[in-house]
Write a structure and sequence with these properties.
The protein is an alpha/beta fold. It is 50% helix and 16% strand. It has a 6-stranded mixed β-sheet with strand order 1-2-3-5-7-10, with helices on both faces. The chain has a 4-stranded mixed β-sheet with strand order 4-6-8-9. The two termini are 30 Å apart.
């Protein structure tokens, strides 16, 4: 693929954005390539966790700001072109990440700006290099609203007050500040980023393969539910999950005082 590199290490798939000469800015082709990579990973039952990261010094500088994006072309307005790109490519890419049947670790290796913040927050666990920053350029510099799922993620993670100020002001959010706010999980020394990401992914790979998707959906479901409704949701899912072979293996491992083998 032109814009994505996929590497498999044992049970871990590493997906890298690969347009380092333009700070890994997003294009339709990148979304097409990334979605194909995710589809291939979903079909491989030997892969049990995934890392999303990028080549070069930037994680993702957001959408590529070309003439078509700002002015359209001879047949289409800028708005109609953007509508097609978001509807058919970038939004489905985020939905694919959300629906991955395995845990997703995002290793933020540099600047994540604009739509790149959406990618940085699209996994289950986001880990950043200490030098990385997140920048919400939409409103302050372009007069737009955040997209690629950023508005959905921000207030859920850091609250309405911080989300509003961060989006309106467009100030750089350091990796350390992002951790303090609860926007991401962890920041580490730059030269340790992939080591920590791989260690985290390996831990996740030892879990039941369906666990991340089930937990992801349960936590997000809880954001809009009453306690009564969430208790009912938990009851329904537990009654399904308890009949899976992974639960039986977990119980057997506990009784036999050994590590469970969910493969």
């Amino acid at each position: 693929m032109e814009t994505i590199i996929v590497e498999v290490r044992d049970t871990i798939a590493i997906v890298k954005l690969n347009r380092p000469n333009v700070l890994n800015s997003m294009t339709e082709q990148m979304a097409v390539d990334a979605r194909q990579a995710l589809a291939d990973i979903r079909q491989d039952n030997t892969i049990r966790a995934m890392i999303l990261t990028a080549e070069g010094r930037s994680f993702c500088a957001g959408a590529e700001l070309n003439d078509e994006l700002s002015g359209g072309d001879e047949q289409h307005s800028a708005g109609s072109l953007l509508n097609a790109t978001m509807r058919d490519h970038t939004n489905p890419w985020i939905q694919d990440l959300y629906n991955m049947p395995i845990p997703v670790v995002v290793a933020i290796n540099g600047v994540a700006a604009g739509a790149g913040v959406g990618l940085a927050l699209a996994g289950d666990i986001s880990i950043a290099a200490n030098s990385a920053t997140l920048v919400l350029t939409f409103s302050a510099k372009l007069g737009l609203i955040p997209d690629v799922g950023v508005t959905w993620q921000l207030s859920r993670r850091i609250g309405l007050a911080r989300a509003t100020a961060a989006a309106l002001l467009g100030d750089k959010i350091s990796a350390q500040q992002a951790v303090e706010w609860g926007l991401i999980w962890q920041s580490v020394d730059d030269d340790k980023l992939m080591e920590v990401a791989l260690s985290t992914a390996n831990r996740l790979a030892k879990m039941p393969r369906h666990a991340a998707l089930e937990l992801r959906q349960a936590l997000h479901h809880a954001q809009t539910m009453t306690l009564e409704a969430q208790l009912d949701y938990e009851r329904q899912r537990q009654c399904v999950l308890i009949e899976k072979p992974e639960f039986k293996e977990g119980v057997a491992a506990f009784k036999e005082k050994r590590a469970p083998d969910f493969r």
